[in-house]
Sequence to fold (245 residues):
Amino acid sequence: MNPVIEKMKQHRSIRKYTDKPISEMMLKSLIECGQAAASSSFIQAYSIVQVIDSDSRSTIAKAAGGQSWIKDAAAFLVICADLNRIDHCCRITNATSLEGYTEHFIAATVDAALMAQNLLLAAESEGLGGVFIGGIRNAPDVIADVLKLPELVYPVFGLCLGWPDHDPETKPRMPVEMILHQDQYRSDNIPSNVDEYDSLMANYYASRLKNQRMSNWSIQTCEAIQGKKREHMLGFLQQRGFLKR
Ligand SMILES: Cc1cc2nc3c(=O)[nH]c(=O)nc-3n(C[C@H](O)[C@H](O)[C@H](O)COP(=O)(O)O)c2cc1C
Fold:
């Protein structure tokens, strides 16, 4: 395995950090790695807000359901999908301004996610660890308010980064055959595939070193997804100029 692939396969979210800081130079270089990701039509439709102020971090940690690692991380970044800048470009070039198209929302969200994943992977290659924080969408209005986000910018997720102070196991992913379809999508093998993966994950949950539990992938993920409907999101996004048509 080449070292990049090896690093990718070692990924696990890190939620405990030492007190060691991340130098400004390193953070800048990691962000440049994030920016090296591909971008839909090269719109680079993202912004990062680094949250340094400890009161702001506490407010965000509380809004995200009390996730203490937001306060403890050496760096905490809010990854935003940003159509505000491109809207400005449209205005100065006398093109019509953006009108809330769903397609543009998807492009900006995908751009932001690709950038953030590149950033995290670069961080991991330097020995740092991190975790994405979708929990900020529990109260996106609080985040937008604290960070003074303008219209056409929304917080997609946060990213905690720091030097790892624990060493959790990697979680076994689904076998490739389960997610790779050839020529046509197949639904007929979903029951048997899920059954097999549930057994694998039940074994993982029962035998991992910490937080052992009797569960499986179906139970865990359905509980998680049903518990995170965040019904306020459509209204929040529309209010910010997204998803109008
Ligand atoms: C978009 C996104 C949002 C996430 N939000 C949170 C979060 O709010 N809090 C948290 O502790 N982990 C969060 N995670 C981490 C996932 O729980 C984690 O990636 C998943 O369980 C797989 O574990 P692993 O990253 O250790 O392989 C998030 C991950 C992604 C991709």
Observations:
- The CA atoms of residues 80 and 210 lie 33 Å apart.
